[in-house]
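Changelog-linked ticket: NAP example.
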Amino acid sequence: MSLTVDLSGRTALVTGASSGLGSRFGRILAANGANVALGARRKDRLESLAAEIGPQAAAIEMDVMREADIVAGFDAAEEAFGTVDTVIANAGIDGAGMAVDMPEEEIERTLAVNLKGAILTAREGAKRMITAGVARGRIVMIASITAFEPSPGLVAYSASKAGVVQAARSMAREWARAGICVNTISPGYIRTAINDAWFDTEPGKKQIARFPKRRLMGEEGLDGVVLFLCSDAAEFVTGSDFVLDDGQTL
Ligand code: NAP
């Protein structure tokens, strides 16, 4: 049975909502009563998801590498539903490749989307929550177990995710007295477009076989904590990281 919380009256902006985990976050937040602004670059996919969810959802084209897009995205969300009081900074790319082979541009792009984009998204949300005097602001940033585990082939990615965890703790401290809770979730491996091709390879299959439960997580594995962190019940939770990995790092 899935957890249900009362998010009615809340407005969430989810980045990376055109695919994978972000689409799921949009669906579950809406199913629990929130209005959801669905952000990403592929507007056609966002529009299909918004149509599926209904009038509680709006599709917002935005590239988190560009601050102007993030500002415009929050403007559009506000126009549709009022002040955003819940932010899920989820957009990310894999930045895969062995360090010795990784082009400089790929390192830059990975950090620009996963780290700079996540900070700018959280910051824009917080600025507006502070200006509007939002009572219970919620910011959830999606990191990864690679923030803590040595991850060959994911050097830039893992560095970006470690950065997200520490940036979130610092932002949590900056905005604590404004009533904004900032937390991170560090998921284990879940099959989505970001890693689908890898887990079909022989090394990818061997990696799955080494996990204690010999499986990837299901997308639904994050639902309960995401909903909790967006709810009033998370009032005393800020600056925390939640490793949700099906025991993959044990
Ligand atoms: P996914 O299916 O590939 O989704 C990635 C999302 O990010 C897409 O919606 C994509 O949308 C968006 N995105 C990428 N670049 C963007 C940009 N410049 N501006 C705006 N949106 C952008 O992968 P996922 O697994 O759901 O990943 C979601 C998050 O979870 C990522 O931060 C990832 O690092 C993290 N995570 C995933 C796993 C896993 O095993 N799946 C584990 C730990 C952490 P557009 O291309 O339409 O812009």
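Closing comment: Example verified and attached. The chain is about 45% helix and 15% strand. The CA atoms of residues 200 and 206 lie 10 Å apart.
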